[in-house]
Amino acid sequence: MGKFTKWLGAGVGFTLGGPIGAIIGYALGSIIDGVSVQEYTKEQEEYHKRTEQRSRPRVEATSGDFEISLLILASVVIKADGNVDPRELEYVRKHFVKLYGKERANHAFKLFNGVIKKDISTRQVCIQIRQHMSHSSRLQLVHFLFGIAQADGLVRPSEEQAIQKIAGYLYISPGDYNSIKAMFYDETDAAYKILEIDKGVSNEEIKKAYRKMAKKYHPDRLQDTIGEEHKKVAKEKFQSIQDAYEKIKKERNFN
Question: At what angle do helices 135-149 and 174-182 cross, to 10 degrees?
Answer without folding.
Answer: 40
